[in-house]
Each structure stands twice: as C-alpha cells, then as structure tokens.
Specification:
By secondary structure, the protein is mostly beta strands. Helix content is about 10%, strand content about 45%. The strands form 2 sheets. It has a 5-stranded mixed β-sheet with strand order 2-9-8-4-5, with no helix packed on it. A hairpin with a 2-residue loop joins strand 8 and strand 9. The longest helix has 8 residues.
Length: about 140
C-alpha cells in the first residue's frame, strides 16, 4: 500500500513543501508492544515514529484496517507519538495489531499481539468417590 493509496482512501491530499531528496523514510523510535489483558479492561498500544515529512499513520487488526470511533480511539501527535486505545476489551479484540507509517519515501510497519484472559475462570470441580460421599453423608 502506498501513501497515495492511503490518502485517496481517506479522501485526503498532502501538500509537500520539501523535495524528495530532503525527505527521510519512516521508522520507529519505539515499537508497539504485546499485551495480556483481562476481558473487560482497557488497553493502549503506543509507538513513536520518525521520518520527514511526518508519516501518515494507519492501524490494522489481523490485516483489516481500523477506523476511529467508539471502540477504537486513535491519536497521533506532532512529535511522532501514536496510540490506539480500546477502552473496554471484548473477546473478539484478541489478535495482532499493526501500525503502518507511510510518507513519500516509503512505509514502515510494526505489530503487537493482544491476548485476552477471561475473567472468573471457574475452578475445577472436585469429584468424590462413592465411598467418600457415603462417608461424608453419615
């Protein structure tokens, strides 16, 4: 996927005041981490980007592009910090989260996995032999 394709998909245009020679390809100063979270809790994926001009950021889950909305909150600052926040984790949120950074010089990607632990896993049942049950009933 190219920067032009991302801009077209989002209905955006990019005005550049630098030449291709002055630009620097995207990269990651810090990458996305993997998390193991309890069902119902929240999580925020973070990364810090480099590149000039500052790359356009797009988030994916299991290869499908995510859109900003009630469930996914995406933020990018001018200094290159980017985040994806999910305020309440659902079982279907488990998967691989990928951030794509793109500018006129190219693309960079990094990924992290979200593991979801169920809340209140039932304890294993204890089975008593018939002899033990009869003894306890007496």
């Amino acid at each position: 996927i190219t920067l032009e394709e991302l801009l077209e998909e989002d209905g955006e245009e990019m005005m550049l005041d630098i030449s291709t020679e002055e630009s620097i390809e995207p990269g990651f100063v810090s990458t996305v981490k993997s998390y193991r979270i309890l069902d119902g809790m929240g999580v925020t994926f973070h990364c810090k980007l480099s590149g000039h001009p500052m790359p356009k950021i797009v988030w994916f889950k299991d290869g499908r592009r995510l859109k900003h909305g009630d469930h996914y909150i995406m933020e990018t600052s001018e200094n290159g910090e980017a985040s994806l926040r999910i305020s309440t984790i659902l079982p279907e949120d488990e998967g691989i989260y990928t951030v794509l950074a793109s500018n006129i010089k190219g693309n960079a990607i990094c990924s992290g996995k979200l593991f979801i632990e169920p809340v209140g896993v039932p304890a294993t049942q204890t089975y008593l032999s018939t002899t033990e049950m009869m003894r306890r009933m007496r």
